[in-house]
Every structure is written in structure tokens, then in C-alpha cells.
Amino acid sequence: MQQGGTVRLRLAEGLLDPQAPDPDQPDVVVRGRGRARKHNGNWLVSLFLENRQSEPDRRRHAPSWIFQVQLSTTGTDDRAVFLPRPERPNGGDHDDAAEQQRLAMAYRFHPEFAVGSGVAVHADVTQDNPSRANEIHTRTVPDYEIPATDVPSADTDPDLAELADLELDMKRLAELAETSAESLVTVLRPLVAGYRAWIKCKTVDIDDPRECLADYADQARDNLDAAAHAADRIEAGIDLLAGDDIVRRAFGFANQPCDVPAAFAHSGGRPAKGGPATHPGRHRGQPRCSG
User: Fold this and answer.
1) What is the secondary structure of 215-262 as a DSSP string?
2) Which long-range contacts (CB under 8 A, 24 or more apart) does 216-225 make?
3) Which residues pair with 137 in a beta bridge?
4) By mean pLDDT, which of 16-20, 55-59, 107-111, 166-170 is the weakest?
5) How far apart are CA 226 and CA 209, in angstroms?
6) Torsions phi, psi of 132, nearest 5?
7) Stretch 123-132: mean pLDDT
8) Among 7, 104, 147, 281, which residue's beta carbon has the most beta carbons within 10 A?
9) DSSP letters of 140-168?
10) 115: exposed, middle or buried (C-beta count within 10 Å: 0-12, 13-18, 19+)?
């Protein structure tokens, strides 16, 4: 039998008075424990659902227990009143603190609104502002939809037009490495051009209020400096392919064993008829081996 109800809590410094959501169960109450206080003009609140029902001497008295409990909170008039929890560094050395700041920047649009005590928490975020939530409620088992990732492409990313002539198919790269240095580097250099164009675009975004990077400007610039260094190293590698025949042929050889086992695996362990096996669910250019 489902039971429960709604209570209105008035925020105040210190303890919050216990209230029973269901009049038929007056000993099951919602209370706050010493966590309702102001923080930079906002409230930090801890809420608990407490079962104060007395239990007879015999063990496992089911009527005294409550099952499949859920606690949810909303603002008055369904307003989006919930803000992200303040960041609290977890200690560590300078490098660890810097990494925490970089992670906070990377996940700034996915903030933490609440933490459960022995239970998961889910926040219903507003569509127009990811730093505001309409409702927070507990869940026995948490769930999260992980966005799919794929190889960047000029066809699917309008801001990466420089990648239109990029070739990432390993079999094709191995063939080009055996043909000539010019043909190989021609299909690889768009990677550097596209990467640098992306870096330039992201540098402009640092000052864009919509990107919410005001508190992470230093971290953003450090990341982009590292990306620029990576672009220089990629370009140096391509230059090496252009000027050293041994390196170029080694590059082609390295791509061949990566492509063949993957094709064999995608055919279900059977050699494909009429040539290498292909897999319709795999996009060209995705990594197929390591080492």
C-alpha cells in the first residue's frame, strides 16, 4: 500500500522541525539536522526521512518498517530554486588540486546538486539553465545516459570543415604509405589544420558568457596551450613521414596488422568473401588495435 504526502519546510538557521508527510503515520517524519544555514547568500540544507515507529520485542516486525522509500523536494510554485553544491577541494598536492579544477571546468554543465546518504540522488534540471534544478529526489539505483562519441567528421561537425579531406581508414593509409610520401601527408595534414582551427575557436569561447568559463579561464588557457603543443607534435610527425622513407613504410606496416585482425573479428571469426570484412556499425577511422 502506497503512503506518503507533502510537507512544507520553512528554512531557518539550525535544526528544522520534524514533520509527518502522512497523518496516518505520524512517527515517519521529515527533518533537517543542523545543516540549514546561509552560504554566500544561499541555503545549504540536509533533509532526512526518519522512521520513529516503535518496534515490538519480536524481530522483523514488518508493520514497523517502511519499504521503497523516496524523498523528493521542490521549491514553492515549482520554481527552479536548486543550485549546484559549492565546490570543496578534497586536498592533495598542487597537481591534484589543478586536476580537480580542470575536471570542474569540463563538467561545469553537469553540476552536483545533492548527495544522498546511503541512497542515490537525481536532479531534474531546467532545459534553459543547467545550473538550476526544479526537483531533487532520491533513487535506490542511480542511472545516467552516457552520450555516444564518434570520430569527428566534416559531415557531422559543421565547425570542422578542415577535416573534409582527412583520411583515417587504416587500410587506405597503409596503401598510401606504399605509394608516395606526398600522397600520404596530403590526407593527414587536414588533421593539424582542423585541430588548430578548433583551438582558435575555443580560445574565443573563453570570453563568451554562454560558456560559463569566467571561473576557469586559467584552466581553459592551460588546456588550449597543451592542445597547441599536441598539434605541433602531430605536425612534426607528419613532416617526418614526408622526409623519411623508412618511417613512412613503418607507418604503413603498423596500420596493416591493425586493420586485418579487426576485419577478421567483425566477420565473426570467418574470412570475408571477396575481400576484408566490414562492419556496418563501425565508423571508419575508429581505433582498432593498441600497441
Assistant:
1) GGHHHHHHHHHHHHHHHHHHHHHHHHHHH-HHHHHHHHHHHHHHHHHH
2) 216/101, 216/104, 216/105, 216/108, 219/98, 219/101, 219/102, 219/105, 220/105, 222/102, 223/102, 223/105, 224/199
3) 72, 122
4) 55-59
5) 23
6) -130, 140
7) 91
8) 104
9) SS----PPP-----TTT-GGGGGGGG---
10) exposed
The 3-state secondary structure of 110-146 reads CCCCCCCCCCEEEEEECCCCCCCEEEEEEECCCCCCC
Greater confidence (75 vs 228) lies with: 228
Contact status, residue 256 vs residue 177, Cβ threshold 8 Å: no
- Confidence (pTM): 0.70
Phi, then psi, of 54 in degrees rounded to 5? -75, 145
Sign of CA dihedral 78, 84, 86, 91: positive
Estimate to the nearest angstrom the gap between the alpha carbon of 135 and the chain centroid.
21
Region of 34 (left: φ > 0; alpha: ψ -120 to 50; beta: rest) is: left
Amino acid 53: pLDDT: 85
Q: Which amino acid is at 266?
A: H
> Residue ranges per domain, the chain?
14-139, 158-266
Residue pointed to by grid coordinates 586493420: 259
